[in-house]
Backbone:
């Protein structure tokens, strides 16, 4: 607790947020601007308020945030993470509610819980790209070699020696 504020630091990707909360009437200020103005998209506005909505304390705290780095959604995730930590500092009994997985929450980022830093929650798994100078990704080239063994040879850029 810093003075009358409870503090939490949140991080997501390259964004860092310092979140200060105190009992109040529900003001939400991000970098000296209202949160609705700072986060232009409705999704960002929803993400930053998730911990307060989840704990039914939306209009019970004044929230002041300093956030820097990253893009809009990285900053929103950092604010959510910092707000969660500040709420846990305010009332440690909220930690199980903020940390648990919930079947009602559908989004992949939310499903992980708010109390952990998930920097790469939205990275696509299995996406591979071709290296410079190659026609396909290395995994796909290996599969081509297996599929065309005896029929053709793949030299990294094209199929050669077709026997059709």
Residues:
């Amino acid at each position: 607790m810093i003075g009358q504020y409870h503090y939490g630091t949140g991080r997501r990707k390259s964004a860092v947020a310092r979140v200060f909360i105190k009992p109040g009437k529900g003001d939400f200020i991000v970098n000296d601007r209202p949160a609705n103005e700072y986060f232009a998209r409705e999704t960002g506005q929803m993400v930053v308020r998730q911990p307060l909505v989840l704990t039914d304390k939306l209009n019970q705290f004044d929230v002041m945030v300093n956030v820097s780095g990253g893009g809009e959604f990285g900053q929103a995730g950092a604010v959510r993470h910092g707000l969660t930590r500040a709420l846990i500092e305010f009332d440690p009994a909220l930690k199980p509610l903020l940390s648990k997985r919930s079947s009602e929450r559908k989004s992949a980022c939310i499903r992980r819980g708010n109390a952990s830093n998930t920097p790469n929650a939205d990275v696509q798994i299995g996406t591979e790209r071709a290296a410079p100078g190659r026609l396909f990704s290395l995994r796909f080239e290996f599969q081509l070699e297996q599929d065309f063994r005896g029929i053709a040879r793949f030299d990294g850029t094209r199929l050669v020696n077709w026997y059709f």
Notes: Confidence is low (pLDDT under 50) at residues 101-112, 119-125. The first strand starts at residue 6 and ends at 12. The chain is about 35% helix and 20% strand.
